[in-house]
Each structure stands twice: as C-alpha cells, then as structure tokens.
Amino acid sequence: IMMSDLGLNPSNNGEVIRIPMPMLTEETRKEMVKQARADAEHGKVSVRNARRDANSTLKDLLKEKDINEDEERFGEEEIQKLTDRYIAEIEKQLKAKEEDLMAV
Question: What span, in angstroms and rounded, lies between the C-alpha atoms of 81 and 38?
C-alpha cells in the first residue's frame, strides 16, 4: 500500500491495519466527476450498441420472412423505448453521483 503512490500511510497496532483516508480536494472531486461522466458515456454507448444489434436481428428476421414489416416496426419502437429508458437511468445515476461527489 505504501509503495502504490496513493498517498496512503497504513498503521498497524498488532491486530488491525488502519488506513486513514485523506479528505477529497476540489481537484480530486472534479477528476472523479470527469471519470464518472466517461463511465456513463461508455454505458450509453453499450446500450446503443445493444439497440443496433437488436435492430439488425429484426432486419434479418424480416429478410428471412420470419416476421412481417408491422412486427419489425413494433419491435424497433419497443427497442427504442427500452434504449431511452436505460439511457435516462444512466443520466439519473450520473447526476446523483455528481451531486454526491461535489457535496462537501
């Protein structure tokens, strides 16, 4: 832990190892918010990729005549609703995390 260059100094009393955590600085908080935003964007990209894959599967089913055009359209609408719902959830979680990190 001491060699990890995290600025932590553990203490040992024989039974318990204590690692005092320093208070977060404004700069550290902003870096964490930036990282949270990047993670949220990665999550949104993953959701969009899942939407693309699902829509591609629907188009393949339409080509193979396993479903008709109305079913494809309905499927695409449902997939879009799910995509919107999960992206909104990611945004909600990001907003909560930003507020949590910036609270002093």
Answer: 24
Calpha distance 75→59 (Å, rounded):
10
State the distance between the two ends of the chain, measured CA to CA, in whole angstroms. Answer: 27
For residue 58, count other CB atoms closer than 10 A to its CB.
20
Nearest-angstrom CA–CA distance, 91 and 2: 36
The yes-or-no verdict on residue 34 having pLDDT over 80 is yes
1 Cβ contact list (under 8 Å, min separation 6): 8, 10, 19
User: Residue 20 above 90 pLDDT?
Assistant: no
Residue 14 zone, left/alpha/beta (φ > 0; ψ -120 to 50; rest): left
User: Encoding tokens for residue 64?
Assistant: 């193979």
Please answer whether residues 100 and 31 qualify as being in contact, where contact means their C-beta atoms are separated by less than 8 angstroms. no
- Helix orientation angle between 69-102 and 26-63, rounded to the nearest 10 degrees: 170
pLDDT digits (tens, 9 = 90+) for 35-87: 999 999 999 999 999 999 999 999 999 999 889 999 999 999 999 999 999 99
